[in-house]
Description:
By secondary structure, this protein is α/β, with parallel strands linked by helices. It has two domains: 17-207 and 324-338, 3-Layer(aba) Sandwich (Rossmann fold); 215-318. The protein is 37% helix and 22% strand. It has helices at 2-22, 45-58, 89-92, 94-102, 114-125, 190-200, 229-233, 246-255, 274-284, 294-303, 306-309, 325-338; strands at residues 32-37, 63-67, 78-80, 107-110, 129-133, 145-151, 179-183, 208-219, 237-241, 262-265, 289-293, 312-323. The protein has a twelve-stranded mixed sheet with strand order 3-4-2-5-1-6-7-8-12-11-9-10, with helices on both faces. The longest helix has 21 residues, at 2-22. The mean pLDDT is 94.
Amino acid sequence: MAKILYPFSIAYRALSALDRKVSAPRCLDAPVISVGNLTWGGTGKTPLVIELLKFLVKNNLKPVVLTRGYGRSGKIPLLLKNGAPKVNPANSGDEPLLIAKSVPEACVIVAADRYAAALSFRNKINPDVYVLDDGFQHWKIKRDLDIVCINASNPFGNGMLIPAGSLREKPSALKRAGLIIITNSDTVCAKRLLELKKEISKYSKAPVAFTYYGGLQYKKIDLKTNFNFKLLKNSKTAAISGIGFSEGFRKSVEKTGIVCEKFISLKDHKKYDKKMLEKIFASAGKESYFITTSKDAVKINAVLDEKNKKRVAVLTAAPQFKNGKEIWEKTILRKIKKR
């Protein structure tokens, strides 16, 4: 299949090069930190954006996220504030809403033209720093720091560009990175991590940090209150996810000691509807419980009936630094102060 799609990958590369050539990067009036990746999904970008926002808030900074809102039905630019309690994920996109709920101190701007939207909302929010979500291939905004996420389990896919492979750019693009984060570092052996770091050094001189998912907690579907862990431990459970790296979610569930009878893996950014969920819940039995991800939870919560919501436990996780946390913090603060 990859060989068949290869001509389309050549076309993709040509169009990407043209897009970059005709896009003149423009400056915003506050520092811009981009968090992106080389591959199509599954690198842990969104959890890292959330971790970055929490770090910025902790340092008394007012961050604003600029995001496209992949898959959303709404076209009008949105400003999500104070946790976006009344926003429907269909209008905002799943990841922007999750980010807003996870860090209510931060504002999230959702728009196709992120530069224009930043200017439009500027006087309403007065940001200290912008976080450009999924920004490594976004050429229209100049940034002060490019953070790139690489999944240790599948760093470069089959080495081919979309659609023959999962790469959005060749690894040589890492020369633009200012900081590289190897995510899911606990899913491969130490030898493989060293090999990956050595491979990255061929393309970039940027510092490298390693993270894994920890701080695992089960929350109710509102993401605010804790779920009764004993109910999961003593009942039949199934798991459902629509994320880029479902295997990582499966392993996180296993870490908590829960043995699921079924794992339902859907495509990334899966759109849920009430009928679909009712069918899934009915097939599992009335006494069963479901475990899902935070990203899926914001969508499921919008369409599921109140009775079945009580059967949903959300496994929340946060990036933990295996090493390189000091590099992460110092690099971010240095780039902001330098601006």
